[in-house]
Amino acid sequence: MTTSFQKDEDYAALCCGQMADPYPVYHRLREEDPVHWSDGFNGWLLTRYDDVLEAFRDSRLESAGRLSTYMDQLPQETRGDVEPLYQHYATWLTNLDPPPHTRLRNLVQKAFTPRMINGLRTFIERNVEQIIDSRRSAGRIEVLSELACPLPSAVIAQMLGVPARDREQFQEWSQQISDFAGTGRPQVDKALRAKLAMLKMSEFVHEIARDLTRDSDQNLIATLSAVAADGDRLSENELVGMCVFLLVAGHETTMALIANGLLALLQHPQQRSKLQHNLVLLDAAVEEMLRYDSPLQHQIRVAKEDVEVGDRCIQRGQRIVLLLGAANRDPGQFPEPDRFDIARDPNRHLAFGQGIHFCIGAPLARLEATVVMRVLLERIPNLRLAPQDIYWRHHTSNRHPRRLEVEF
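and the corresponding structure tokens:
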């Protein structure tokens, strides 16, 4: 299969030119060259649903190697400076493969329970209601800065026992850590900022972990410290790495889900009216928000051996970019994929991944989005988009608008 894409055209489109709407580029890639080599991304782009699903499940594709293939693109003189960043990233669940991944995930799941997550429902509802009440006199909410960003940060910080006064600082650190991985190609200035943010966040979590009592089942750091399986426990470094990972991943993805989902709902008034008059569809609506404009647009894997995908041979050591946003708009899986349909069934989207790396925080993200949408629809029935130009974050993976004004 041949493609008419010119050198670096795919990278320029997806990283710079098509932030507002990458989906025509995804469709074109899928039609012309569904397993496409990209010099800009230094890897193979997969756009078909079946290929992405199979890649998630293929044990010949590893997560651990993706970190080094990304960091190795930095100048040699910079790599030593950012080694602490590399070492910390290497402790994250998303960058591990079995057996260490299996061990850590089993330990974390003993603490990250449905009971703990469901216990946050009232806290989430109260926060959303307070945000709405604080903006009633203005008749307007800036969704990113006043709702979608502070809410997930407050929720995960509440779980971990982070004091309220420090949550804004955690948001800033989280953004700086996330920004480093969001350009397709690593950049020195962002790597250095991410390293500094990682060190500060790690030091802070260390202090919290030392100060917290060990007998509280309401606090995830305390619970993670105490949890054990077959005599195994998290080391202090693993505990800190897990907490930083949860703070960053839990904040960024849920923020994007809330912003993207609300934007899609308000841009489709018939679907919004349908949901407002039938809130039993709320769970299905959140799944469609995840599919329609996925918060995480891609994940990376590295081939441990030569692997055939479609008519291409991916060589050992090469990177594979699983384009979730493209897979979730594949017409072979989703009829009329560019249509936003809150009652879509079935809806087997890949927004949270698949296989052993399925997002451990998916239940919490779903809960937050569901609560936000329900409270907004119930408390502000006349909510609408304010007149505005919408600009999207310059990040190849985490997708959301920079600002989103709504009024009522």
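(Above: one complete record from the training split.) The chain is about 50% helix and 10% strand.
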